[in-house]
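Batch job 17 of 40 flagged for manual review because the log was empty.
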Amino acid sequence: MEINEVSGHVVDAAIRVHTDLGPGLLESAYVSFLSVQLRKRGLRIAHEVPISVTYEGVEVHNGYRIDLLVQDRVVVELKAVKRLLPVHEAQLLSYLRLGHFNVGLLINFHELHLRDGIKRVVSRYTGSAPSAPPRPPR
């Protein structure tokens, strides 16, 4: 299944959950309900996926946890907050980079219309985390 098809299924399933239940629940509830919808569609999901990160030569287990990983390809970070902040997108970008994933979805279920709370993030970063910031050109 193509990555765009996977992310499309995730968005469609999230809209279904939001339509059925609306805003106002805890993030953990939305993770559970979205998992049900995705499994009904025959998608393989993993919940609270621990990712190890190597930092300065030391492997740190459980460096972070992905809310949902769909088809081993799409990272889904769920929120139930008043509004998404730039730090939420930065968090997802870090998850993508450190986990070597290319596509992530940031979904905030605390919106009146869920379409206003969905952000698709693409990372083309394939290397390891830099040990020092790059120097500016001279």
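Reviewer: the log was empty due to a logging misconfiguration, but the result itself is present. DSSP finds three helices and five strands in the chain. Unflagging and moving on to job 18.
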